[in-house]
Design brief:
Number of helices: 10
Oligomer: single chain
Number of domains: 1
Strand content: 5-15%
């Protein structure tokens, strides 16, 4: 289970994927005057991944605003990133491959120096004030259960956030706060438990998400957090000027190519002899999520935190299987 404050470290391999999910959406944006919010920054794996991405792709590094409530982790961030000088980040061969463009075929990438302002704030993100809005936000939020949230803070969160009805998990107001601090048109990627899409009690949270432009929801492999009994997804959205209410929830595979998932699983420590079993389990889980979301959206509708006006088309078993359509290349 997560630590008492809900902290679960993000593996470097997954950090690379989260950075790719966010920054590939805006890969044509070469504006040097952008900023990126890292709430619940932990020890900085997502910031390190963004630096790797920008170095390999030759992109400007957005100014970083790292927020961390834990004193020890905030101190670690200051030691690791506090001195903001132009530098070339360290890069493993695996990270280089992850961030190298897949198009055109045979594309290569060399590391380039990166530099951006870094601000580190030791505070509770959910009660923090900022003097600016952000172009981008990226996080693996704390997964604290309702019973582990300070009772005084529960009341404060209920007054401040719309996603806090009933026995809410901490990641619900945390994600809502990320949206609140984005500029209109800003982008964010966030790791969430898959139950956020399914459980009845999380309907208010889903309603908050549906107001924005949901760009992608991809299932993450079970090996992402092997020491914790939690299945996760990676959700990317764009903040809209006014509520859309025409988004809906669906789940897709993380890659179009089976070989890419194999590489990720090996990076996550799965032995080659077990990769096949992990892929089969991933395939079955994606199928289940697709089927369950179609059922929920048809039967629970708006009261269940779904968009009853936009229901994914029923799919055959073969159409539901993302892996079944993957290339073996």
């Amino acid at each position: 289970m997560p630590a008492e404050d809900g902290f679960v470290p993000t593996p470097p391999a997954i950090s690379d994927e989260v950075a790719l999910s966010l920054l590939s959406c805006i890969h044509n944006n070469d504006d040097n005057e952008t900023n990126l919010l890292y709430p619940g920054a932990g020890r900085g794996p997502l910031f390190a991944a963004v630096k790797r991405y920008c170095s390999v792709r030759g992109k400007p590094l957005p100014d970083a605003h790292l927020v961390e409530a834990n004193e020890n982790r905030a101190g670690f961030l200051d030691q690791r990133f506090g001195k903001s000088e132009p530098h070339t980040p360290s890069l493993s061969d695996d990270s280089r491959r992850a961030h190298t463009p897949s198009y055109p075929p045979g594309a290569t990438a060399e590391k380039t120096p990166v530099h951006g302002d870094v601000t580190i704030k030791e505070t509770n993100f959910l009660t923090a004030d900022f003097d600016t809005k952000f172009d981008f936000a990226i996080a693996n939020p704390p997964y604290s259960r309702y019973k582990n949230i300070d009772t005084g803070l529960r009341d404060q969160y209920r007054e401040q956030y719309n996603s806090t009805e009933g026995s809410f998990p901490l990641y619900a107001p945390f994600t809502e706060a990320m949206i609140n601090h984005l500029k209109v048109g800003g982008w964010m990627s966030v790791i969430l438990p898959e139950q956020a899409l399914l459980r009845d009690t999380f309907a208010p949270f889903r309603d908050v998400l549906l107001r924005e432009n949901i760009v992608q929801i991809a299932a993450l492999p079970r090996a992402t957090f092997p020491d914790h009994s939690i299945e996760t997804i990676l959700l990317t959205l764009q903040k809209t000027k006014s509520p859309l209410y025409d988004s809906h929830f669906w789940v897709e595979t993380l890659y179009n190519y089976k070989s890419k998932l194999e590489e990720l699983l090996i990076r996550l420590g799965v032995s080659e002899s077990e990769v096949g079993d992990h892929i089969n389990a991933y395939n079955e889980r994606v199928d289940y999520l697709k089927t369950q979301l179609v059922w929920n959206q048809k039967n629970d509708g708006k009261e269940g935190g779904y968009n009853s006006a936009v229901v994914p088309t029923d799919q055959t078993e073969s159409e539901q299987s993302g892996l079944g359509a993957w290339s073996d290349d």
